[in-house]
Target: MarR family transcriptional regulator
Amino acid sequence: MTWDAMDDHHPSARLRRLPSRMLSMVAMHADRLVSEGLAREDARKWHYAALVALDEAGPASQAELSKRTGIYRSDLVAVINELAERGHVERAPDPADRRRNVITVTEPGRRHLRRLDKLITELQDDVLAPLTQPEREQLTGVLAQILEHHSRSRTS
Model:
């Protein structure tokens, strides 16, 4: 991506020294690439997040799945509906509390998730193309550190 593609003009050195601006520009580019790639597979970022959370930690109530993924409960209902319509998840009443639903990933959902995992890996490689593997790991670690700091400060 060239500076022209990001800003319609070459940004000043002063702007290039602002980490928050650089993070924002890279995030916008990465978000666009990932969203477009997932759309080609008839999926969205929230579909992927929900399937990963269910695959890794098992069935969950809608409230628990919301906590695991960071998807607002009101938005999660639409995500679950879309995944259920495609046969990727099942929604059933919780035997312990019939007022709640438990969401479970199906075998077709697991197959779809494996395809999405492969695609996400390819998209990550595209986004991070100029970095070596150690640089990618370092960047991911630094970003996780920043996110953890701000997540803690929001809950304090």
In short: The chain is about 70% helix and 10% strand. The first strand starts at residue 60 and ends at 61.
